[in-house]
């Protein structure tokens, strides 16, 4: 059967090429649109969540603001101690998947002068930034085991390794403080910073210094002033040093062991309930749940429209397949008659045409999907060159397996469906009439 | 976003921190060491020079900071307990308890200039320095580096200031020599290594406040300590 179909295709190569091209172009359009729209959806949601999970909730060491309970980002109430017991109660809330504590400390950061960048450039400390060669900085401490669940994303390098005590991730705020922009992010990877936590006791002050290497740059700020991110243990050590101050009225030492926490809900639909429960425990929360829900709705509409365009093109291609096979039926009436005369049944004739259409459709699908993925890749290169020129992270276009499989099988199946009418028409031709034609 | 809200208390604290970071007021209590874990700990004991006086930016250009940044392992924690105007006896009374509570692995000691400027006898200086080095001797300490008195005899301003205490310039020079010998004896007794700092060259005279090393002199001192620590 396949051999017979193959022979028919070879006998009319021009028509076969045109049919395969029609199916291929339609499959290419379908694949490219779905690949791009799928990636765009992921990127938009990543931007909204800063690379963190969609069902992420920020918990502040502050009382909830009841007036703005349903707002995504409410103004927190009065400061409140967030300790291990409170985190335990939050972790026990129904629908909470993970709770990642966050601590922050105010430190002195000495980046060196001049700062030698990875690309060989040097930058001098600006006197107004630190007359003593130092900057005041906020350091965030996070559990590096859970760093990928936090709403932060990398511009360059990597996050500090779990357990590392000499590694730090800088933020875009730190770049700005050094007079650099996002595009310079890779150049500060490898630079060294001395970080000092100061404590007061009696009339004196002592600073505890540690040396850290910048191993990565994240796209978000840790504070309005800048910010560095390191392991929670390092920041705890700094906090403990400062917190041990004696008779000290000059330092405002945080009362709360944790500055906040990042909670991940089991799914997006449960975020509101989890936020309510956490507010019931007594803490202010924020989450872009309403924003995400709205954006998802809009993105779904866009995806449906793009998929519709792709399907219309596939339908047009199917009409092309159908038309080509109808022409083939007319041209091959004598051949059909001979086949029937030597004993072929109607369903054998149907099979010949369906297999031929299936083969043409599948070949067109393979070529089209390959072309579509290539088009999506080219679009990504163009978009990335623009994003990089703006100092923004690029997008990655992967190979969406569902789109690839769906595109190829869809093209094959659609071609076979389009061949049903011509195949039936061919099968119903009386053998004698076909031979006489 | 929480990342932005976490730092609301920065501004109030900041000015205090910078002002405090170089303060030389003698502290009155020793810090607890429970959070100094197994990392190497470097503690600097000293007076004005070790606080960073004379350098343009003490947190960047002082010899202790240069020594810490360039000569010690990356995971080393550093605490400078030096105090402006401290004599060796002051250091033994205030800085040594702080240092020992931090359980250091490496200690640098640069004392003597203030003793000289305040007319402390070589015998009392030696006794106080002995107390300092015995005090910092701990099972965890692997290295104690003690600065020599160096070439102070060539510093006219220092000699003149010391002469006011010791009677004559010759008596002051004699005391400087006696200090040098005392440092060598105490270091030998306590297993410490003497570092010849030769700090006079490039320093700006401001005695009796201290040696007031300029940035180049701070860098040379740091290099001398780094060579001794290697």
Description:
The complex is a heterodimer of chains A (437) and B (230). Chain A is built from 13 helices and twelve strands. With 437 residues, chain A is α+β, with helices and mostly antiparallel strands. In chain A, helix 2 packs antiparallel against helix 11 and helix 8 packs parallel to helix 11. The model of chain A has no long low-confidence stretch (mean pLDDT 79). Chain B is built from eleven helices and five strands. Chain B has 230 residues and is an alpha/beta fold. Chains A and B meet through strand 1, strand 2, strand 5, strand 8 and strand 9 of A and helix 1, helix 2, helix 4, helix 5 and strand 2 of B. Strand 9 of chain A pairs antiparallel with strand 2 of chain B, so a sheet runs across the interface.
Helix count of chain B equals 11
Strand content of chain A: 15-25%
Q: Please state how the strands of the largest beta sheet of chain B are arranged side by side.
A: 2-1-3-4-5
Please tell me the overall pLDDT of chain A: 79
Q: Helices, strands, pairings?
A:
The complex is a heterodimer of chains A (437) and B (230).
Chain A: H1 2-11, H2 13-49, E1 56-60, H3 84-91, E2 96-110, E3 115-116, E4 122-123, E5 135-142, E6 154-157, E7 167-171, H4 172-177, H5 185-188, E8 192-201, E9 204-218, E10 228-231, H6 232-243, E11 260-265, H7 271-281, E12 285-286, H8 289-331, H9 333-341, H10 346-389, H11 401-418, H12 420-427, H13 431-436
Parallel strand pairs in A: 5-10, 7-9
Antiparallel strand pairs in A: 1-11, 1-12, 2-5, 2-8, 2-11, 3-4, 6-9, 7-10, 8-9
Helix pairs in contact in A: 1-10, 2-8, 2-10, 2-11, 8-11, 8-12, 10-11, 10-12
Chain B: H1 2-5, H2 10-21, E1 41-46, H3 48-51, H4 58-61, H5 63-71, E2 77-80, H6 88-101, E3 106-110, H7 113-117, H8 122-136, E4 143-147, H9 156-166, H10 169-190, E5 193-195, H11 215-229
Parallel strand pairs in B: 1-2, 1-3, 3-4, 4-5
């Amino acid at each position: 059967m396949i051999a017979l179909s193959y022979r028919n295709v070879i006998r009319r190569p021009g028509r076969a090429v045109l049919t395969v091209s029609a199916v291929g172009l339609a499959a290419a359009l379908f694949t490219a649109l779905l690949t791009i729209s799928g990636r765009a959806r992921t990127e938009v949601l990543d931007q909204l969540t800063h690379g963190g999970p969609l069902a992420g909730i920020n918990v502040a060491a502050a009382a909830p603001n009841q007036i703005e309970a349903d707002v995504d980002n409410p103004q927190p109430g009065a400061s409140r101690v967030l300790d291990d017991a409170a985190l335990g109660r939050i972790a026990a809330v129904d629908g909470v998947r993970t709770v990642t504590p966050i601590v922050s400390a105010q430190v002195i950061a000495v980046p060196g002068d001049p700062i030698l960048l990875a690309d060989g450039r040097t930058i001098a400390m600006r006197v107004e930034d630190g007359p003593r060669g130092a900057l005041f900085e906020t350091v965030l401490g996070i559990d590096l085991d859970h760093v990928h669940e936090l709403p932060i994303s990398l511009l360059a390098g990597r996050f500090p390794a779990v357990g590392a005590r000499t590694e730090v991730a800088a933020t875009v705020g730190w770049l700005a403080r050094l007079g650099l922009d996002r595009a310079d992010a890779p150049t500060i990877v490898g630079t060294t910073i001395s970080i000092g936590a100061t404590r007061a006791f009696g009339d004196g002050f002592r600073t505890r210094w540690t040396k850290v290497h910048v191993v990565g740059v994240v796209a978000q700020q840790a504070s309005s002033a800048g910010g560095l991110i390191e392991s929670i243990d390092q920041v705890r050590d700094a906090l403990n040093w400062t917190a041990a101050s004696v008779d000290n009225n000059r330092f405002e030492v945080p009362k709360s062991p944790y500055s906040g926490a990042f909670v991940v809900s089991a799914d997006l639909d449960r975020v509101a309930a989890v936020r309510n429960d956490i507010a019931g425990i007594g803490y202010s929360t924020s989450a872009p749940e309403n924003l995400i829900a709205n954006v998802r709705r809009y993105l779904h509409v866009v995806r449906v429209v793009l998929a519709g365009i792709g399907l219309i093109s596939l339908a047009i291609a199917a009409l092309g397949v159908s038309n080509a096979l109808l022409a083939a039926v007319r041209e091959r009436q004598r051949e059909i008659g001979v086949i029937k005369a030597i004993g072929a049944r109607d369903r054998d004739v149907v099979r010949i045409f369906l297999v031929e259409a299936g083969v043409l459709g599948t070949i067109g699908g393979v070529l089209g999907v390959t072309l579509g993925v290539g088009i999506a890749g080219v679009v990504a290169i163009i978009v990335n060159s623009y994003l990089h020129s703006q100092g923004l992270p690029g997008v990655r276009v992967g190979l969406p397996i569902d789109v690839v499989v769906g595109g190829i099988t869809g093209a094959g199946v659609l071609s076979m469906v389009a061949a049903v009418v011509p195949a039936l028409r061919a099968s119903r031709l009386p053998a004698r009439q076909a031979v006489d034609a | 976003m929480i990342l932005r809200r976490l730092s609301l208390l920065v501004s109030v604290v900041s000015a205090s921190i910078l002002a405090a970071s170089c303060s030389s007021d003698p502290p009155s209590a020793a810090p607890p060491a429970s959070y100094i874990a197994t990392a190497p700990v470097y503690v600097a004991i000293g007076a004005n020079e070790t606080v960073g006086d004379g350098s343009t930016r003490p947190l960047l250009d002082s010899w202790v900071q240069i020594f810490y940044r360039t000569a010690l392992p990356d995971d080393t924690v550093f605490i400078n307990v030096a105090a402006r105007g401290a004599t060796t006896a002051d250091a033994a009374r205030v800085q040594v308890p702080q240092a020992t509570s931090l359980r250091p692995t490496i200690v640098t000691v640069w004392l003597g200039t203030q003793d000289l400027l305040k007319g402390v006898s070589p015998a009392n200086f030696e006794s106080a320095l002995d107390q300092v080095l015995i005090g910092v001797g701990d099972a965890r300490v692997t290295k104690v580096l003690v600065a020599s008195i160096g070439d102070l005899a060539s510093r006219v301003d220092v000699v003149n200031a010391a002469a006011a205490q010791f009677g004559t310039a010759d008596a002051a020079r004699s005391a400087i020599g006696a200090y040098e010998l005392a440092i060598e004896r105490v270091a030998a007794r306590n297993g410490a290594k003497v570092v010849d700092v030769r700090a006079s060259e490039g320093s700006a005279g401001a005695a009796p406040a201290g040696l007031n090393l300029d940035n180049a002199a701070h860098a040379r001192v740091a290099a001398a300590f780094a060579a001794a620590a290697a």
